[in-house]
Amino acid sequence: MKMTFRWYGEGNDQVTLGHIKQIPGVEGIVWSLHDMPAGELWSEERIAKEKAIIEAAGFNIDVVESVNVHEDIKLGLPSRDQYIENYKETLRRLAKAGVKVVCYNFMPVFDWTRTSLYKETEDGSNALFFEKSQIHNIDPTELIEKLAKDVDVTMPGWEPERLGKLKQTFKQYEGFGAEDLWKNLQYFLEQVIPVCEECGIKMGIHPDDPAFPIFGLPRIIINKENIGRFLGLVDSPYNGLSLCTGSLGSANNDIPDIIDTYHDRIHFMHIRNVKRYENGDFIETSHRACDGSVDTVKVINTLHKHGYQGYVRPDHGRHIWGEEKWARPGYGLYDRALGIMYILGVWDNLNHEKV
Ligand SMILES: [Mn+2]
């Protein structure tokens, strides 16, 4: 596995490349142009600038997370064709700069949803939390506005231009079902994957988070069966997965079994843990297997068994040692660094005869 760390860019992240440099084993930065609205063509200058910053710090730029998919593509509106053309050209430019894997998602309206960003836990840390009953009793625009007020940074999927149009976007999805979303995803892939085959970029779709429908919006990348259907939409190694154990772990998925079945289509792994409660609530925990509902050791063992050569990053961490005062929700420094040491500890142990 090749270890990476997500970083939001200079001036946009309190974590610095210097901090990341001191975490053992990190080879690459998972990056994006976070101020770029979905659907826009990325400029070669901006890509080159980001590449220079990251490479100067001694990291590779192999993985981009994300190039966001414009809502009109998910909705299947006539305007999607121009946005898809922009997407294809952005991929060509990223390939030219040396990018190997692009992560994206195909979730209507929101990239991810929680009901609390700083839920306190018994040990004094706090973490992202999802309370199912709250979701049923709140208007989605109210919920997102409430959460957005808790932080002074823009979070992926909650960009101001998206938030400003939430009510209108929800209206557009009235009467829109899972099969419509499948059809529009297929249309997108049939255009984009041939470009990836030409330029050598592997696409990795991120599972829906949480992995079940909310607010009446369809969610399709949620379980083994649907992942199989997704991979069959365009049966190419370039049409693959960014397998996120935390997202799939928000529902009762057997993730080691999913890895066993689809390992040759996994280009990028997000490894983290969540604790699921019987009432459907879940909270993000440390990466350790016994702290949550995801058997992270078995996940790593299964990747090792298949000789996984792809990219890995620790996903969301808890906020610990007071870092909630400055860290992005889920993207502090400390718990993700601990997560890396856990992942690499298990991995090195499996490799011990070779070390
Ligand atoms: Mn993830």
Automatic annotation (TrEMBL):
<dbReference type="InterPro" id="IPR036237">
    <property type="entry name" value="Xyl_isomerase-like_sf"/>
</dbReference>
<comment type="function">
    <text>Catalyzes the dehydration of D-mannonate.</text>
</comment>
<dbReference type="GO" id="GO:0030145">
    <property type="term" value="F:manganese ion binding"/>
</dbReference>
<comment type="similarity">
    <text>Belongs to the mannonate dehydratase family.</text>
</comment>
<protein>
    <recommendedName>
        <fullName>Mannonate dehydratase</fullName>
        <ecNumber>4.2.1.8</ecNumber>
    </recommendedName>
</protein>
<dbReference type="GO" id="GO:0008198">
    <property type="term" value="F:ferrous iron binding"/>
</dbReference>
<dbReference type="InterPro" id="IPR004628">
    <property type="entry name" value="Man_deHydtase"/>
</dbReference>
<keyword id="KW-0456">Lyase</keyword>
<comment type="pathway">
    <text>Carbohydrate metabolism; pentose and glucuronate interconversion.</text>
</comment>
<keyword id="KW-0464">Manganese</keyword>
<dbReference type="Pfam" id="PF03786">
    <property type="entry name" value="UxuA"/>
</dbReference>
<keyword id="KW-0408">Iron</keyword>
<dbReference type="GO" id="GO:0008927">
    <property type="term" value="F:mannonate dehydratase activity"/>
</dbReference>
<dbReference type="GO" id="GO:0042840">
    <property type="term" value="P:D-glucuronate catabolic process"/>
</dbReference>
